[in-house]
Amino acid sequence: MAKPSDRSGEVPARLRNEAVIALGQRKLLQRVVPGLMHAFIFWGFIVLLPTIVMAMIAIADRGETIPWLGRQGWFALIADVFCVLVLAGVVTAFLIRKIQRPARFEGSHMGEADLILVLIAGIVATLLLWHASLIALGLNEWGASWSPVSNALSNLFGGGSGTHDAERVLVWAHIAIVLSFLAYLPNSKHLHIATAVVNVYFGRTRARGRLEPLRFDEEGPEEDMRLGSGTVTDMTWKQVVDTYSCTECGRCQDVCPAWATGKALSPKLLIMGLRDQLFAEGPQALGAAEFEPSPLVPNAVTDEVVWDCVTCGACVRECPVSIEHIDHIVDLRRHLVMNEARFPSEAEPMLRDVERSSNPWGKAQSDRAAWAEGLGVRVLEPGDPAPDVLYWVGCAASFDERARTSAESTAKLLTAAGIDFAILGPREACTGDPARRMGNEYVFQSFAEQNVETLNESGAKKIVTSCPHCFNTLANEYPDFGGSYEVVHHSELLAELVREGRISPSRGDRRITYHDSCYLARHNDVLAEPRELVAAVGQPVEMARTGKRTFCCGAGGAHMWMEERGRPINEERVREAAETGAETLAVACPYCTIMLDDGVRTSGRDLRVADVATLLAESVEPPEE
Ligand code: SF4
Ligand code: SF4
């Protein structure tokens, strides 16, 4: 019933993910205690699987077992050890749920989880006691000396006819609980036991910031074409398996900036809402062609939830079973925007300005290079020879007063270092990123095609961008439209120039804390270079949430142009920056510059927000008075 999603290929990377994320439990082990708790139970289940078969054989004939493996002392030892580890895991899980009660479980099905934990404890306890009764009956001498726990427990049994009966009761109880567990599984959130490993295998293998393109005809979408996710029948098979795989662990909710600042969106509740609607309507949709499923918005999730997302990717990174929340949210937006023209009214001017003026600021394209006046920057005309590096300035750094400083600094530094670079000036248009994250895929694709044509004509091979959103679009999304270039962020190029000694900054005493942009650090792994620049000009001090675990500035997902409900995300981040005691809040993104500078002003903090390029330029040449 589900729509296609191409997840073929990349087999080595998929197998690596399976080994590291599923078998190795890497994401879960980021939090040591709950991670070990889950790992013990998960690994225990894998190791103990053969013991279930052994018990089934023993029901028919207690003297029989699996050939070879069933009579290995070392396997008896491993089974003993893992029974204890699983029980320790179950006890820890109860302590976490009943005593610690982390906020991330808010909204999860707690009763269901308790029942599953009781069933797991029952399976393992009956297994241990059954092994012990066999030892007491002298039926597995080979295992007795190897299994200290079962051996010790065998003293509970006298060895007479009562033990014979107890052995029968225990083996039957063991299998009855295992079968009850299997029967309950598809009706509970523990369905993830069956689907999570599949979901991890088919998860994204690269370019985490890339969105899957929609395919249109030459003339654009047809009138009655269904776009994005309107009902359960519009979801792709990966999105369906995503919903089956959610463990309701709440790790995504815990790191979501929207949820943390009191908004309606919880990525966990979003996935659970989609799953509930899928379970409610899927069988009818499968059974009757004329069945009309109900809209996902506002039935599974509300409009508010869909528009609260800043596409920061924190949820996707944290999810232990490779659920791709952003794809769900953008597909819901695509349907609302392109099929129903339904989106927050305050975002309308942005979409209109992008379409009419080729930038979300609504400024004249002829002014795009105004920031570069007097700096001697070459503006590339059609037919000009390609520069070594094409500087893609982006709309924010071209038109916003505060963000322009970064473009000016970058241009001065590249000139000082003797780099042959040029800009496109009025021929550079919006990459289409804000329209795409808003759900208007058609507008995005028009800009993608236009920009790719300009870039291919320019002959540029290497592009440097100031904006992580432009960086992500040019590097990860334009290849889908015929544009493949070497794309670097300005912090990467500037750090290289400092390393080579082509820029020589002087190091000051001021404390600087660096804010990682989501689209640079989390979506594109650029972490070290901006920090190199900070360390070259001042004394770095890190915030609590840093690197790939950064906290959004609040601008992503086109939120720069939307009203914010709840507490402002930018003020939350500024508070965290101020807690470091730094005087300067360094950024490497024009949107972060604007949002965090606003946050400093509205929260009355004493912090200066500046791009790493600006800080570097100042350390080379002291600022003019
Ligand atoms: S992408 Fe960010 S804002 Fe959106 S649901 Fe995930 S964590 Fe929340
Ligand atoms: S979506 Fe992933 S991280 Fe969030 S609750 Fe479900 S399994 Fe946990």
Question: Which features does this protein show?
Answer:
625 residues, mainly alpha, Rossmann fold, 5-stranded parallel beta sheet, 4-stranded parallel beta sheet, 28 helices, binds iron/sulfur cluster
Order of strands, widest sheet: 1-3-2-4-5
Assign the CATH topology of the largest domain.
Fumarate Reductase Cytochrome B subunit
Span of the ends, CA to CA: 67 Å
Number of alpha- plus pi-helical segments: 28
Summed over residues and divided by their number, the pLDDT gives a mean of 95
Structural class label: mainly alpha
Q: How many individual domains? A: 4
**CATH top level label of the largest domain:** Mainly Alpha
Question: What are the SSEs and their pairings?
Answer:
Blueprint: H1 11-23, H2 32-60, H3 73-100, H4 110-136, H5 141-144, H6 148-153, H7 161-184, H8 192-201, H9 237-245, H10 251-255, H11 257-260, H12 267-287, H13 296-299, H14 303-308, H15 314-318, H16 325-340, H17 348-357, E1 378-379, E2 389-392, H18 395-399, H19 401-416, E3 421-423, H20 433-438, H21 441-458, E4 462-465, H22 468-477, E5 486-489, H23 490-499, E6 511-514, H24 518-522, H25 528-537, E7 539-540, H26 569-578, E8 584-587, H27 590-603, E9 608-611, H28 612-620
Parallel strand pairs: 1-3, 2-3, 2-4, 4-5, 6-7, 6-8, 8-9
Helix pairs in contact: 1-8, 2-3, 2-7, 3-4, 4-7, 8-9, 9-12, 19-27, 19-28, 23-25, 25-28, 26-27
The chain binds iron/sulfur cluster (2 copies).
The site of one iron/sulfur cluster has 15 residues, from α11, α15 and α16.
